[in-house]
UniProtKB/TrEMBL annotation:
This is Bifunctional protein FolD. It comes from Methanosarcina horonobensis HB-1 = JCM 15518. Pathway: One-carbon metabolism; tetrahydrofolate interconversion. Residues 145-285 form the Tetrahydrofolate dehydrogenase/cyclohydrolase NAD(P)-binding domain. GO terms for biological process: L-histidine biosynthetic process; methionine biosynthetic process; purine nucleotide biosynthetic process; tetrahydrofolate interconversion. It catalyses: (6R)-5,10-methenyltetrahydrofolate + H2O = (6R)-10-formyltetrahydrofolate + H(+); (6R)-5,10-methylene-5,6,7,8-tetrahydrofolate + NADP(+) = (6R)-5,10-methenyltetrahydrofolate + NADPH.
Amino acid sequence: MSDESYESRIIDGKVLAQQVEEEVRSGVEDLESNRGVSPGLATILVGDDPASKIYVRLKHRACERVGIRAEDHFLPAETTQEELLALIDSLNKNKDVHAILLQLPLPKHLFPQEAMEAISPSKDADGFHPYNMGKLMIGDEGLVPCTPHGIIRALEEYNVPVKGKNVVIVGHSNVVGKPMAAMLLNRNATVSVCHIFTDDLKKYSLGADILVVAAGVKHLIKADMVKEGVVIFDVGINKEEDGVYGDVDFKNVIKKASLITPVPGGVGPLTVAMLMKHVLMCAEKSL
Ligand SMILES: Nc1nc2c(c(=O)[nH]1)N[C@@H](CN(C=O)c1ccc(C(=O)N[C@@H](CCC(=O)O)C(=O)O)cc1)CN2
């Protein structure tokens, strides 16, 4: 088969993100004209990690597109935990700020868990607060982490059945792997969570109907590690001098997959779009 004929197998994250953003834009208009509320997001970036700067910029651009007010709080790398907590406290109290986003990772001397717990659960656009994570675990999904939420949206849009399917997740982070597992269990998938300590990853990945890879290892998943017809979400962003690469050897694996996300242009744009959705949810709940 020529490379062109594999095109229909690609899940276009940019197109899906545009769809989600369109829904948010109309929700924002509705909230403004009928309830007089203009949704506002405050982003916090500590330090000058180049990738984090790009992601925060992408989030601000998305806010502009959908009509969300966004304020940018940039703190220098030497910021103390107390200073960070003081900023979060003031944003929690600010009625014009409906949602708060603390960009991760934080500089090594700071304590991300304590900072995330300081964000009011009702303003937790990222869904990282233990209250929101706890709700997710018991099947009450409200504010949930953006990347897994984007993947669930893509599964729905592409009519991929989840119930009873074997899902393998590679990576057990709090940002992607663990919440992804909970969201899929909530939908009655059979979920295996693998990670860097998993012995014989291939043994698991070969059984996957749906494979979510968030390991941060360039081209970890090769064509001989997946079965024909698998649906793959590649969350990896591995930056090298000549470009950005995913955790999946896309060029070869697409020959076996029925659907697959590319990097870039797959899960990343969806993550940002779901954040917009969450800001709108926070603003709606504030009423
Ligand atoms: N507070 C949070 N921090 C982090 C999260 C998160 O969801 N909340 N996730 C990641 C980074 N991230 C969002 O913050 C993110 C990563 C990638 C993209 C994206 O659109 N990537 C582009 C490629 C961009 C490039 O070339 O650098 C793509 O995939 O097309 C958006 C958001 C960690 N931190």
